[in-house]
Specification:
Order of helices and strands: EHEHEEHHHHHH
CATH topology of the largest domain: Glutathione S-transferase Yfyf (Class Pi), Chain A, domain 2
Radius of gyration: 17 Å
Strand content: 5-15%
Number of domains: 2
Number of helices: 8
Number of strands: 4
CATH class of the largest domain: Mainly Alpha
Distance between the termini: 42 Å
């Protein structure tokens, strides 16, 4: 199989790439990254020196692609040009890319900071409070921004929705928003019902117990 996604089934960024792959109906091999194994860890760093996940390996083009947003754009450019993950219209494309960055930087990142406190013993209450405050501001912005829209940037499912699905799913478990932000909550409901994301969630079910939430924080 020419496309290999090096990933972990609990990783929010890996979910983002897998949603796009399923939306584009592209066959691929999901290869588990076992970074605790020294040889496999070294192989991953040889593949992508910054060591993050996921990484897409396109053996048919002898290409290695890192960073989820770039992976999605790459897939559309070289494997599914009609996918619509990035609109052809420049103004619409800029809106999609902006929302993609909002979900990654202002939802996914502070959510991850709170979760990380579980592994550090919850000894940084100031950092957790700052992350919560940033999440709250992002929720307020998105509640207004998404009003009247089916998907993040309009009527079409795009890169922005690939980013939104994992970030909002996990954020709702860290700082719940469905009761306080009904527009955002209804949007998450639609994302969870989307076949591509529903499939990702089913695949992750066996390891959901490993997600620490914000217990220690």
């Amino acid at each position: 199989m020419p496309l290999i996604l090096h990933e972990h089934p609990l990783s929010s960024y890996c979910w983002k790439a897998k949603i796009a792959l399923y939306e584009m109906d592209l066959p691929f091999e999901a290869r588990l990254l076992e970074l605790y194994d020294e040889a496999k860890r070294n192989a991953h760093y040889a593949r992508w020196p910054l060591g993050k996940m996921p990484v897409l390996e396109d053996t048919g083009r002898d290409a290695v692609v890192a960073e989820t947003s770039v992976i999605v754009e790459y897939l559309q450019a070289f494997h599914a040009p009609s996918a619509g993950m990035i609109p052809a219209d420049l103004e619409a494309a800029l809106r999609v890319r902006l929302l993609d960055r909002v979900f990654d930087s202002y939802v996914m990142e502070p959510m991850s900071r709170v979760v990380a406190e579980n592994f550090r013993g919850g000894d940084d209450p100031v950092g957790v409070a700052q992350a919560d405050a940033l999440l709250a501001r992002a929720y307020d912005y998105l509640e207004r921004e998404l009003a009247g829209r089916t998907w993040a940037a309009g009527d079409t499912f795009t890169l922005a929705d690939c980013a939104a699905a994992p970030s909002l799913f996990y954020a709702d478990k860290v700082l719940p928003f469905r009761a306080s932000h009904p527009t955002l909550g209804a949007y998450l409901d639609r994302l969870e019902a989307r076949p591509s994301f529903a499939r990702v969630l089913r695949e992750a079910e066996p390891v959901f117990h490993m997600f620490p939430g914000r217990k220690a924080a």
